[in-house]
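Sample entry (619 residues):
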Amino acid sequence: MLDSSGFEDTLRPEEGSTGSARVGICDPTTADSLAGDRRISRPNRALLGALDRAMYTRPFVVIDADNHGEPVDSLEAARAALTDATAASAAGRLADGLVAADIDADDPVIGDAVAEALIAWCHRHQLPYLLRDSGRPGGRHVVAVLQDQARATQWAALCRQLAASYGVVVDDRTGAVLRLLTAPHRRGLPSPVLACTITPAIVMDLAARTTGRRGRRRAQPAPGTGSRSETEYGASCAMARAGFDTETAWQEIARRDGKSAERGRDWWVRHMWVSAVTVAAAEDGLDTNTAWQRVRSLCPCIARRWWTPLWTRARAEAAQDRPRRRQLATEPAHDQAQAQATARIDTLRAAFATATEALTGVDPRRRRSVAAALYALSAAIVTRGGSMSTRDLSIRARLDLATVRRALATAVEHGLIVRVHEYAGGADDCHAYAPGPAVTIQAETPAPQSSSLTRGTPRPHGTACPHRLRRAYQRDRMIWRLRNDVLASLVPGERLATSQHPAAKLLRSLWAQRKWWTALTDQQREQRRTARRAVLAGLHRSDQRRWFAWLNRRQTITAAADALTTTPGRALPPDAARAVLAAPLTVHRGLRDPLWREGGTPAAPPAAAAADQLVLAAA
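Predicted structure, serialized as tokens:
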């Protein structure tokens, strides 16, 4: 552990300095010199509070002693929960430009070695860093400030390399939620900041440099309890403590359709269930032979020589630092219907896979797309009568929408599926499919116990990015719903292109003006500007002020119209609808409007249903 004997009050900058103070500065250039340097001061709490404000951003989360999190609106709300003792700890998302690693090692010596390797990398690239105990023995948090975002890939590769070299968990937490520097460990374990060369000024300067040139911000995942493996392992531990048998526990894990479902039952048994049962036995205080009999009865395929190291670690943790207690989000009430549905889905997927492999005269790439689409469609066939939208199918199969449609057409053509219902229109209907004559569904039989611990066959899927597909389909659905509502509100026989609704006329006018202006050459645009300057020069000063006020209002109207056509409904600015509905009828006439000094010819007061008509903006 790093000594704090060299503590000094570095909160106050030197006289005449306009920058922030640097605390805990050390300057080793290699891992060996870092290990030998122990005179590193710990920053005081006031500076840690300033670092919290600079290094963390929303979402903020308050955490109880069982590691259950609840989102809060701000950093102040998270701190208030800690002060009131309504939360055990608090966390927030690391700001852009910061990289972090969460080291989880059983041996503190190994944890220090991994942390020193990361800090040596920071010194080699001259990057400010922060080192903190995470609470558990061998746990460390390392945070660094990147001057070049291209190094984020190198950081991730370094974390993977260290994890493989030392055989410990080194989780890359870049862009993820991490515990606040001023927040205690949820169980009261010591988690001091051991070294810090990051200052608030460094982080804020980085934000000022990157904010202006950064494009659209990447959507961040909602705050959760951790990675898929962590969540599934926690659920496995909870079921092992509750006395679930292997098959019942596997059905619950497979129903979650997570990482274990992708890799198969054998992988889950080897990497999660055996460890969970062993941990539960150690917590119950069983002796070695009794614990081995319990593990053997639940996992017959396990070998004792492979299990012995797991048992040793589990007993050590149970005696010194109790393992994390996790609870299922919902009580695992397994009824017979759910178990039968899961079995039917597995049987149907196996039948589809066999029939797809037997296809002849089909391009191998198309065959893989068909396999991925039918795998994703199987659950809908069993549980929803085969009704599933092509966009939902695209996301689940990770295939482009056009690829999904071609895959379904190929499956129908070769008799793998049949279309039992045609889309009839509206938001509550879609195509429905059923297994075709080319698919032979075997009788449902219980899965045999396998003696192999090899990884199961992963599920077939494409390579499309699901986040990109969700964003694209969210916009498609928003526009479709708006247009659908518009068609329902129009007068019979009226078309969107000729609608006389004020909002429709406004949008057509703005679109026509923008198209006309962009079609002009640079010389023609300059001529128009010169002519307009001459007109404005002949106006009285008061008229000029009114004209510029009108231009400001027109800009607001244009921005509102653009927001209506490009922004998802939940993120729509609240004043956008009001600005478009209240726009003057002659917004396109400018100085030719006789009432331009009063803001243009006003629109008629909107009726009660005018807000519904505003969906014409999406047309």
